[in-house]
Amino acid sequence: MKTMSHFLVQPSWRLIITDLGLNVGHVLRSAQLPADLFSREEAYLSTAQYFKLWQATEQLLGNPKDLPLRIAQSVAIESFSPLVFACMCSANLNVALKRLAEFKSLLGPMTLHVEEDETDTCARLRFCDTETPVPTMIAATELVFFTQLARTATRQMIVPSRLNLQELPSDLTPYTQYFGRPIEQGADITIAFSKADAERPFLTENSPMWQFFEPTLRKQLSELTQHSTTAEKVKSVLLELLPSGRSSMDAVAKTLAMSVRSLQRHLHSENLHFQEVLHQTRKDLAQHYLKKSHISLNEIAYLLGFHDSQSFARAFKQWQGQTPLAFRKQK
Description:
By secondary structure, this protein is an alpha+beta fold. The protein has helices at residues 12-19, 24-30, 47-60, 67-74, 82-87, 93-103, 136-154, 173-179, 195-198, 207-226, 230-241, 249-255, 260-269, 274-292, 297-303, 309-320, 324-329, and strands spanning 6-8, 44-46, 110-116, 120-127, 162-165, 184-185, 189-194. The protein is globular. This is AraC-like DNA-binding protein.
């Protein structure tokens, strides 16, 4: 799972904007993006530009509170990207989510971590730039997307077993009706499906089609990786490893398929040390959780890979010059 500072523009976004009843030119102009963005053979967006595109779409639609649901109702899921269409060819939702997790960074500034246990499969989404405010509708749209993927591919009214957002929509009623259960506030953007639903066969399974798409997706991911700094790659891996308590240089190097010495050398060429990247990643995430959520210090400590809240509090005071509670009161 890799995260880049820039990612490839998907031509299918033009179709999504059109299906929502908007003029593509007006949206691009409002987002201060090039008028020929979707016509370019290879165009890239930064995280800030990605968010601006979303914000422009929301504003031109009149800031509808049910935009994620409108997308689900008016846009064919195959319109999102070749990756999404390829995942429709998976054997089941477990396989589809793992494929999405590997290539998610092709679609935007985020990582997807998938965990399976004896009862369910949980997908956790994280946006990698914690400094840039995330438009409120993006996270809800992701939950709608995963649910729509499951329902479309199985032709069953799949109901998630758990739904969490860091900030809840102001009107939850239409979302509860769509999902079949309420969204709850939590530390991360998560969605879970029962083991039975996650293993339910996709009627759209098509192995030859996946074999057709996979080389292209891997080529795109490889090309994007070349544009990323080592620090960005390390931060991406830490976002995935921290909740499991693994934040050592050895664990990160192993995930990046390089030796510890090579990792140190690459970071040194960027005038950085591993501990600097680790501390900055933890600091950014801590500030994000304290500002944007109401989760306890114990939960934040766990998500950042600390053994207990006291260790987290001491580290935060060193970073920020004040306690986590004092920082939270200022938000």
